[in-house]
Design a protein that fits this description.
Alpha-D-Glucose-1,6-Bisphosphate, Chain A, domain 4, alpha+beta, 26% helix, START-like_dom_sf, globular, 167 residues, eight-stranded antiparallel β-sheet, single chain, ASHA1/2-like_C, 4 helices
């Protein structure tokens, strides 16, 4: 079964990119912990090591197979429990610029996730990947089986949607 894409193109912080939203029946501090604490991240995407107060951490994805290398993520803004802005080198000339924003209303927390980009082919690959990982986050936070979520349900099935956002 192919999951339906939810991402959209928006301008955030003055840059175009892919934006995805997920909601949680949980307090904002709990969702903040799920996106910032290494042991909570491990449940859905990966782990980090190092000292965040230094301005960067080493991040390793855990659902990408065994050939994954640590990536350095620079922390640009961290305003608990509402905003996290980070970046990581992507290739020789690009960076992945990520912005995670949290709001809470009446016990429901909304995560708005964005990655700056304008390249249709990058979007065709990265968009479905973030759909997959954010659905894994939702599963982890709601007590469901994260392993039951298959990347094949997202990619390549959602690629045309994301490519079209930037065509």
């Amino acid at each position: 079964m192919t999951a339906s894409p939810t991402g959209r193109r928006e301008t955030r912080n003055g840059r175009d990119g892919v934006v995805l939203t997920r909601t949680f029946r949980a307090p904002i501090k709990s969702v903040w912990a799920a996106i910032t604490e290494s042991d909570r991240l491990a449940r859905w995407i990966g782990t980090w090591s190092g000292d965040p107060s230094s301005g960067s951490v080493e991040f390793r994805m855990n659902a990408e197979g065994d050939d994954v290398q640590d990536e350095t993520f620079t922390i640009h803004r961290c305003e608990p429990p509402h905003l996290l802005e980070v970046s990581s080198p992507a290739g020789e000339t690009d960076t992945f610029d990520l912005l995670l924003e949290l709001t809470e209303t009446a016990g429901t927390t909304t995560l708005t996730f964005s990655q700056s980009m304008t390249d249709p082919e990058l979007a065709a690959n990265v968009g479905p990947g973030w759909e997959y990982y954010l659905d894994r986050l939702v599963a982890a936070e709601s007590g469901n089986d994260v392993a039951a979520i298959s990347f094949d349900d997202y990619h390549p099935g959602q690629s045309d949607h994301y490519r079209g956002l930037f065509a």
